[in-house]
Amino acid sequence: MKNCISVKEILITSTEIDKRVTEIANQITADYKDSSPLIIGVLKGAWIFMADMVRKIELDVDVDFICVSSYGGGTSTSGQITLLKDITTDCSGRDVIVVEDIIDSGTTLMYLREMLLERNAASVNIATLLSKPSRRVVDIDVKYIGFEVPDKFVVGYGMDYKERFRTLQDICVLKEEVYKKK
Ligand code: PRP
Question: Ligand 1 — pocket residues by CB below 6 A?
Answer without folding.
Answer: 42-45, 69-71, 77, 100-108, 160
